[in-house]
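Annex B, item 7. Sequence and structure tokens for protein A, then protein B.
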Amino acid sequence: MAKRILTLFLLLGTFLFAFQQIPATLKNILLLKKYNVPLVDIRPIQEIKVTGMIKWAESIPMISRYGGILYNNIAFFKRKFQKGATIAIITKTGLDAIPVARILEQNGYKVILLKGGYNFLFKDMMNNMDKFLTLDIIKKLP
């Protein structure tokens, strides 16, 4: 019974979320860069200052430090990216990015959500330390 409910939930999830979700792996991050897909870090600035962020990512905070959505910051997306543009977004876990992905899609953007966020990315980097040591992808904010 639980298996059926989980399957139903997963199927409904595909219909509810029009945006694409891909795992936040080092390989996927580098592929986004290779194909010039803008990567936007939507975490609060306070969080970015602690953990750093991917060097080529844009920082447009869409989530407050208390977890609320910063609706006014959609204006930054509108100034930076044309309607219809494909944009990848990343947060700490990826879960808090789901409502933001919906809002961006409602505003005409094609969204790729990096599932698992930085938590997943850092685990992937640890598992692939031999590859990561030659890359310099994380920057710290002052």
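Protein B:
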Amino acid sequence: MATETKSNAPAAPNAADTRHQHQVLTGRVTSAKMEKTIVVEVLRLVQHPKYRRVVRISKKFYAHDEQRQAKLGDTVRIVASRPMSKLKRWRLKEVLARNVSEEIKAEIKRDRGAEQ
């Protein structure tokens, strides 16, 4: 699930454009209750140094969501940015996949309201 990649911007002659290569992570939203802030859990698979078994390592990142478009359970891509608060150093780049169960629950609720 977690992919740590560098953004591949085309090489431009302007030094300001090629100065920063921001880190990009993909993870799942675990909390969207704060104002314009989401908590993203990034899952990595790492081989244990001694036992050589693949272990899941998860880490939480606080990310800025200006339009409040990410919801609980969504798969999102976040990009490293300037510090915005004590814990927030990432911003939402895009929502990759919506949480299907939330959409289905909302649809069922609408259907029940229409029947009554």
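Comment on protein B: The mean pLDDT is 85.
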